[in-house]
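User: Hi! I have a protein structure encoded as tokens and I'd like to know what sequence might fold into it. I'm fairly new to this, so please keep things simple.
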């Protein structure tokens, strides 16, 4: 039983024993170095014609913050604290006093808008551009992961409780990161010996180079563009598993989706062999749909609420790889994209596990507005990226080349970072 209800019961008992019809009552509650005083009047019982005692009633001079969910004697399920809503945001003694529900959504509906600063895995590519002026050959682009710098994004959450006691609810989330763009450009003015390396299938896979620029002989340029876009969301049903005076645990069940779209484009222009241009495009798409299972813990710690969410998505990742190439020599062939070899659209479906862990700290500014900050990690157990699908072994001597060929190459993927936002309950 809450303290305020206990004190009210004692006053009620005292009222039954008095003979006066109306009595002024002062209710004092002391917590630490602070005392909260509430004034009330008690109407003592009277005997009716049947000799029965009518119940005593109480009238409080201040009913507290009923709009915020507080009853006359304390917290209702959507309430604030045992003594009502005060100037500290939730209860007269703040969020940490008494049985509170400052943690988690506190009324019928809620909306949350967050700023994201997240990092992604980045894109790897084989060696694509070199300077072959003198041994050893200098790699200008390739052989490392790029595009893994932090990018801004946003996340929107909308939710509602399905019953007045906040036992069951549903919420929808959508998030998206800003595009990650990588660009590399080189020409014969800055790199007189400019080439595109490959492995020669006709010579036992020996390293070779396609000359784009050679001092005194040819000139040319190379441009590489790579982009990455990541987004996701879910629709989750949440139900209360347990609750105490300082927190609650909900189970989560619902639908989850995500998209990872990435590409690499290679363009080259050269005056060699009469001049020509080449263009390759490698575009990878991962589209995940699955069921989400998890738990959400809200725990009051002093003046803030700590929110820990852990869930896992289980489902199908539809992987699509589109490869195209063109040149002045052949409209259907580039350098590493060639007809009869790897040009085309390739698809496969893979079972993927997508866990997500999020830790947030929330401060209740008022009975309806809160601010939060935290961190999130999302992991995909299986995904494709465009650079891993480039076959750099070429068969340049045969009219019907054996290489390049296409085969799916997969790896894991992740995004992680920080978030900060506002939540409004209404």
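Assistant: Happy to help. Inverse folding works backwards from shape to sequence: for each of the 426 positions I chose a residue that suits the local structure. Here it is:
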């Amino acid at each position: 039983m809450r303290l305020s209800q206990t004190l009210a019961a004692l006053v009620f008992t005292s009222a039954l024993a008095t003979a006066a019809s109306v009595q002024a009552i002062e209710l004092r509650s002391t917590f630490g170095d602070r005392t909260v005083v509430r004034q009330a009047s008690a109407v003592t019982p009277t005997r009716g014609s049947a000799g029965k005692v009518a119940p005593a009633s109480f009238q409080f001079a201040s009913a507290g913050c009923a709009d915020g969910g507080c009853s006359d004697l304390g917290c209702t399920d959507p309430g604030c604290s045992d003594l009502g809503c005060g100037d500290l945001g939730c209860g007269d003694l703040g969020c940490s006093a008494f049985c509170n529900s400052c943690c988690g959504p506190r009324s019928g509906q809620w909306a949350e808008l967050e700023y994201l600063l997240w990092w992604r895995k980045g894109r790897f590519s084989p060696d694509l551009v070199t300077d072959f002026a003198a041994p050893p050959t200098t790699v200008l682009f390739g052989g490392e992961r790029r595009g893994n710098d932090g990018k801004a994004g946003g996340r929107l959450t909308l939710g509602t409780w399905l019953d007045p006691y906040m036992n069951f609810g549903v919420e929808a989330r959508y998030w998206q990161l800003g595009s990650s763009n990588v660009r590399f450009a080189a020409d014969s003015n800055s790199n007189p010996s400019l080439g595109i390396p490959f492995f020669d299938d006709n010579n036992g896979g020996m390293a070779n180079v396609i000359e784009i620029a050679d001092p005194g002989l040819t000139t040319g340029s190379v441009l590489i563009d790579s982009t990455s876009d990541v987004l996701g969301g879910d629709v989750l049903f949440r139900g209360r598993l347990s609750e105490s005076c300082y927190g609650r645990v909900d189970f989560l069940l619902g639908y989850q989706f995500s998209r990872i779209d990435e590409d690499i484009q290679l363009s080259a222009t050269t005056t060699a062999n009469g001049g020509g241009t080449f263009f390759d495009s490698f575009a990878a798409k991962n589209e995940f749909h699955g069921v989400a299972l998890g738990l959400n813990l809200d725990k009051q710690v002093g003046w803030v609420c700590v929110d820990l969410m852990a869930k896992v998505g289980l489902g199908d990742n539809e992987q699509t790889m589109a490869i195209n190439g063109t040149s002045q020599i052949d409209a259907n062939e580039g350098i590493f994209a060639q007809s009869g070899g790897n040009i085309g659209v390739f698809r496969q479906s893979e079972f993927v596990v997508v866990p997500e862990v999020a830790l947030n700290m929330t401060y209740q500014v008022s009975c309806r507005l809160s601010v939060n900050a935290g961190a999130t990690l999302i992991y995909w157990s299986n995904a494709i990226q465009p650079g891993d699908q480039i076959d750099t072994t070429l068969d340049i001597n045969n009219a019907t080349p054996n290489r390049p060929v296409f085969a799916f190459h997969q790896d894991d993927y992740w995004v992680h970072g920080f978030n900060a936002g506002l939540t409004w309950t209404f």
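A useful reference point when you look it over: The CA atoms of residues 63 and 287 lie 53 Å apart. Feel free to ask if any position seems puzzling.
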